[in-house]
Amino acid sequence: MTEMTTTPEGDSEPQVSTRKATRRGGGDPATRGRTTIADGVVEKIAGLAAREVLGVHAMGSGLARTFGAVRDRVPGGTKSVTRGVKAEVGEVQTALDLEIVVDYGVSIIDVSRAVRENVIASVERMTGLEVVEVNIAVSDVKLPEEEEEEPAPPRIQ
Q1: Given CB 3.0 to 4.6 Å as the disulfide criterion, which of 8, 45, 84, 142 pairs with 59?
Q2: How far is CA 96 from CA 109, 116, 136, in A?
Q3: What is the pLDDT of residues 56-109, one digit of tens each?
Q4: Biggest alpha carbon distance in the chain?
Q5: Distance CA 145, CA 138 (A)
Q6: Do residues 2 and 14 lie in contact, with contact meaning Cβ atoms separated by under 8 Å?
Q7: Can you tell me the distance from the alpha carbon of 80 to that of 131, in angstroms, rounded to the nearest whole number?
Q8: Are the CB atoms for 70 and 109 separated by under 8 Å?
């Protein structure tokens, strides 16, 4: 802020004010505070992204899928999108372990590559975290003649 003052001799000279404009909060609003992302959030994003890939039949081991199918049939139960996904989340990075079942006849290498690319893109876009690794374990192959794993019908209606 510049002000003009007059000296006793009548000369005008600019005076620079040392008063600073005060702003509340100080700094960029985007840097005020901290955001933490739970492991479960990253697991959901990764689980959905992996299931989008053609050739992924299911997620998780046989036992986890069986228990999940029972839980899905219970009234009020919800489908677990995190089945077969484990995430470790730090402040700026995350690492993921996925367990998948692939359809018979697909290239496991190609499906794994596509899953890895889709998961990394989705997690990084939605969370801003750097995905340092996505480990994929193929636990089974779904054969065409295999029936879906159906739990026994509930005894109570």
Answers
A1: 84
A2: 18, 10, 8
A3: 999 998 654 454 555 555 555 555 899 999 999 999 999 999 999 999 999 999
A4: 105
A5: 19
A6: yes
A7: 22
A8: no
